[in-house]
Amino acid sequence: MLLIEIAHPAGRLTPADHDLLGEAVVGLFLAPEGHAEETSVRARGATHIAFRELSGWRTGHGVPAADAAPPLIITVTVPRSWRDEAGGTFIGLLRHAVRRLDDARGWHRTEGSLWVRVVGVADGDIGLDGRPATGADVVDFLTEDFRSALANGSVAPPPAGKLLDPVCGMTVPDGRGAIVLEHDGRRWGFCAAGCRDAYLREHPAAVA
């Protein structure tokens, strides 16, 4: 669940700009390196990017200059637990995506013209396919196909020095700061606390 709305002054971004910025967001948030294909397919389907043109845009200085980078207000909506853990990362990725557009257009963005809001939706207020859900339900939905493949023994082992996240399939470095659990003699790594918690719900005997 990654819902991104990009608001800008009416007429200031072209359809080509929308395409460039949308592709930059997808490329940064859903980079293929280290992700399981099964999870990536589900994540792509649950990622939605839309643009909203707003008329009458004003700042404290008046109407934004027509030859400058247009101001943007980006709202990204995720489960609350994701916001608490990775809100800063989301903001950084969106900043980099906007920079790609600015570089392509030769725009110099003035300070205070890009705002990002990370909105966390509480459990029960998430409507997954129109049904009330929790952040854990979203994780389960995104990782269902990979977890089935792992249970069927059709997942390749991770490269040397990496650990496999048994929930989403990402490979993570096995080193200092890694989120790790051991269960039934196997060492697992996790890309985030959400995946670790999902594994613990199914395997409460796992230990750090």
UniProtKB/TrEMBL annotation:
Residue intervals of the TRASH domain: 165-203
Organism: Occultella glacieicola
Protein's name according to its UniProt entry: YHS domain-containing protein
Domain of life: Bacteria
